[in-house]
Design a protein that fits this description.
This is Protein-tyrosine-phosphatase. There is one protein chain. This protein has five helices and 26 strands. By secondary structure, it is α+β, with helices and mostly antiparallel strands. It has four domains: about 120 residues, Immunoglobulin-like; about 90 residues, Sandwich (Immunoglobulin-like); about 90 residues, Immunoglobulin-like (Sandwich); about 50 residues, no CATH class. Strands 10, 11, 13, 14 and 15 form a five-stranded antiparallel β-sheet that branches. Strands 18, 19, 21, 22 and 23 form a five-stranded antiparallel β-sheet that branches. A four-stranded antiparallel β-sheet has the order 4-3-6-7, with no helix packed on it. Strand 18 and strand 19 form a beta hairpin. The protein is rod-shaped and about 140 Å long.
Length: about 400
């Protein structure tokens, strides 16, 4: 082997090594093998820590060994390879950060110089983290509150979306990052379980890049009992009757209790024809606030309607002790009333005696039709002495005069 041959072989190896360390975009300008480069590249989210790379292969793949995809500016080397005959021509690059945009470059590895084709580039996102927690609480018979917790790593999240299966399949409410993570869902059916989904999304992406959904279920409240009647039965018990509501078929029971810890007595009314129960063990002659709720049995705590409150008194106990107390108080009350009446009558008589009327009259009837009449200050009759019956009739007519009597007893 001559010196020329050796130098030729060494020159080819040097060219090969130089080309291996050269960027594909610079090689593209230096070689005629651009037709081996992929026609395109699509990057889609795959998970919170990975992306999927899909190639559009070139028309000619005869001399292509494989396709290679590499992530730029990754915290560490991230790449994947795609076999030439694989369909679809895609691979997944992992160990990435959630909710982050990455630039990806892909090229073909070929069997001859320049060994690497011209590259194509595209960008894509990893999925953002899902909400940390979703909680659904009933607000009324037609609404629920959906509350969420932000994930520990909220990188890239621009909004939160809430949907209700069967009612609002598209996002019912959108909450921007930084706002209170709560929304109210209205227009729902009473005493009904609803499935709610929540997810996070990255802003200003088309198509939307959103997290996996987080699902929770919640109930609306039953309708409050329409009419509650409380009847006193004895000195220690009352009967509670409830009128059924339109959603009776979904109500598991009615709960009856005493308000504010006045008593621990309670009873339950199962759904049926006779919606009635009796509260026992109450104190006599006492006022109670009776609370009635319609409830739905769930896998968790019962979901109950708003309270309906009715005031009731228990009857007075007729035990010997209470009966003696009633008689004593009644006697005291009667004596007090009699004393007050006597006091006011005596006071009125004393006032009348202290202020005699100028028309006060004294007369006495003697035998037969003769009357002796005496007037001390009458303006109509002056003098005294025996008068006949005709004169007595005049006096009687004067006494019948209303104004005269008013003056007399004023």
């Amino acid at each position: 082997m001559g010196c020329g041959t050796v130098f030729l072989i060494l020159g080819r190896w040097m060219s090969f090594l130089i080309l291996l360390g050269t960027r594909p975009d610079t090689m593209a300008n230096a070689t005629p093998s651009d037709f081996y480069a992929p026609h395109g590249l699509i990057v889609t989210p795959y998970s919170t820590s990975s992306i999927k790379v899909t190639l559009i292969p070139p028309d000619h793949t005869t001399n292509i060994i494989r396709f290679v995809a590499v992530v730029h500016k990754a915290p560490f080397f991230a790449m994947c390879e795609i076999e030439v005959n694989k369909y679809p021509p895609s691979c997944v690059i992992g160990r990435l950060k959630a909710g982050t945009k990455y630039e990806v470059e892909a090229h073909s590895r070929i069997q001859k110089i320049p060994f690497i084709s011209h590259s194509v580039e595209a960008a894509g996102w990893t999925l953002p983290n899902a909400p940390g927690k979703v909680m659904v609480t009933p607000l009324s018979s037609s609404s629920m509150a959906v509350r969420m917790e932000a994930p520990t790593d909220a990188t890239g999240i621009g909004r939160y979306e809430v949907t209700v299966d069967g009612v609002y399949p598209t996002p019912f409410c959108t909450i921007l990052r930084g706002d209170q993570l709560e929304c109210h869902v209205e227009g729902l059916q009473s005493a009904t379980e609803h499935m709610v989904t929540a997810r996070t999304c990255i802003s200003d992406t088309d198509p939307a890049v959103c997290s996996n959904i987080l699902t929770a279920s919640g109930w609306t409240k039953p309708m409050a009992p329409a009419n509650v009647t409380v009847t006193t039965i004895s000195d220690s018990s009352v009967d509670v009757s409830v009128q059924a509501t339109p959603d009776l078929a979904r109500i598991s029971r009615y709960k009856v209790s005493i308000a504010e810890g006045r008593a621990t007595e309670s009873c339950t009314i199962p759904p049926g024809e006779k919606l009635k129960c009796r509260l026992k063990g109450l104190q006599s002659s006492s006022k109670y606030e009776v609370i009635v709720r319609a409830c739905v049995h769930t896998t968790g705590p019962d979901v109950c309607s708003d309270d309906v409150m009715v005031t009731v008194w228990t009857k007075i106990s007729l035990s010997p002790g209470n009966l003696a107390l009633i008689i004593t108080w009644t006697a005291i009350s009667l004596v007090a009333i009699i004393l007050l009446v006597v006091f006011f009558l005596k006071r009125k008589l004393n006032r009348r005696d202290s202020k005699p009327s100028k028309n006060s009259i004294e007369f006495s009837v003697f035998h037969g039709d003769k009357v002796e009449f005496t007037s001390s200050s009458s303006s109509e009759i002056v003098g005294q002495g025996p008068i006949d019956f005709a004169d007595f009739q005049k006096v009687s007519s004067w006494l019948d005069d209303t104004d005269a009597w008013n003056q007399l007893f004023r």
